[in-house]
Design brief:
Keywords: Competence, Membrane, Transmembrane, Transmembrane helix. The protein is an alpha+beta fold. It is built from two helices and nine strands; from the N terminus they run ααβββββββββ. The chain has one domain. A six-stranded mixed beta sheet has the order 5-4-3-2-1-9, covered by helices on one side. β1 and β2 form a beta hairpin.
Amino acid sequence: MERIKKVFNSEAGMTLIELLASITIFFLIIGVVIGFLLQTNHFVSQTNSTVIQEGNSQALRLLLQDTFSSGIEIAYTEDPQEIKVRQMDGTCHSFNVNKEQKTLYHYERKCDALMDFKYPEQGEAFKGISGIKLDSLDQKGRAFIVKIEGDKNIQYSFNLLNTELQK
């Protein structure tokens, strides 16, 4: 105890080695804290990205279910990739993929026939989508599956209420 009092009461100050040791310890502590904060920030941003992708994926699944469950007429083109659906209430939907932007666009408006369907000014955009495909599941052409390829692959099976398929 006496020795500690002597060190603090001494006017000689600290030696160079003591000064270097304290600076080294200080920077080690700062490095650990900054490393921890950077790792935490990276983890949080990854988690946010995953949550956003899951939310978009779920929204797209619900949109597909809502659109195709009451479809009576459907048209599909492979290039450019597009699926058009007309529902019983006369609402027409278009799902088309811009491969360069990796984005699926959804347009909706009332129409009498799919061939008359013109895109409205605004639509929904789903990022991270690289392709959309429509496959028939049966010989009668009533059961279909929509496959969406991208960051999260989505498949949705449905039956047309009518058998009108246009290519």
